[in-house]
Amino acid sequence: xxxxxxxxxxxxxxxxxxxxxxxxxxxGATMTLLLLQAGSxxxxxxxxxxxxxxxxxxxxxxxLYNRVIRPLQTASNMLSAIREGDFSMQxxxxxxxxxxxxxxxxxxxxxxxxxxxxxGAVEAxxxxxxxxxxxxxxxxxxxxxxRLNSINAAGEKLLLKSSSEVVGMPATxxxxxxxxxxxxxxxxxxxxxxxxxxxxxxxxxxxxxxVPQTLLLVADLSQPLREGERQAWQRLIRVLGHExxxxxxxxxxxxxxxxxxxxxxxxxxxxxxxxxxxLEVIASRSDKLNRFMxxxxxxxxxxxxxxxxxxxxxxxxRPISLETRVAVELIEGPDCSIEADAGQIEQLIINxxxxxxxxxxxxxxxxxxxxxxxxxxxxxxWIEDDGPGIANPSNLFTPFYxxxxxxxxxxxxxxxxxxxxxxxxxxxDNRSDAMGCRARLMLPVRTT
Length: 448
Hints:
Beta-Lactamase; 4 domains; 5-stranded mixed sheet; 54% helix
């Protein structure tokens, strides 16, 4: 303790410069005193010489001090202003040829750069705040303790409270705690103080000054869903009307023809053949209509998946082993598992393999390959063929639409419905590297 108290405080940089400047004049002053002592000068002359010597010496010290210390103080003030966010200070005329001028020029450049960045950040923040306030999506941010940090105007409308009333409240008191713990990929019915509706909840994380925060977005999906349902019904009614008209129109026409023939007296000689042919057509059209309605029932009555843990490799090998018309090359991926309904996923894969086989049989050449891979938390089960490709991709998953002779148009529509029920996606596209198409089934991979 005594040693630390007795330790001398280091001399400041300004004092070191001042002492150095004074020491620079010591040799000259000493030489002058020696010359004055050796010569025969009057006292008045000696005093005058010493006076001007001392005045010149101190003037030069002051000039040197100012030339060294003042620019450094200016640089310090400019850096302090930059630290405080004031970028208005600029060094005056600088000479790029000397070190001090280069330092001032660099400080000016840094100040201008930070001023532009600050202006851009302010403008971007203002734009973001404007968007957040204007969008019709409720915006909530929570801290690590699940307390509300901020809320936009749409969120205030949902809670029927102002931000000053709810900021700082825990998520449990707002009824939003479950949405901070779980991800809801499908629309969910929920009652906010303002209204009961079907909502889409999106959760994400971010950092504010290094502190983790949680972002929760809540969107009212009732109107878009109603519009989507209306469009789906319109498409369904068009398809049903088309199929019913195709079947009932010939039945009605043949029925009228047979009724007129039955009223003839006498009957035509070939009436039995006409009657048999007409009834066969009616029976054929009735069977087609019955198959159509059975296919519609399969899509409308798809049961919820009975999920279990399944190995992806085994899930793909079983349908491939059942395909005997064409050899399917299996390209295995990494070991992984999913939670899915084995029967439904296998039916989906069988439908894709059936389409691939029919595609290459049109060309009477080519092969089929299947496999799986991991991609961003999902497993991609893929099947590709060397067939002619897809002529009209827009109607690929339209129920009861088929370009194949005798096709029902149900397989792919049912396959996509199975994928949707498993929180997955099913896409089929033409290959970019060769003729044929590639089907991709994306499903959430099971994490251990």
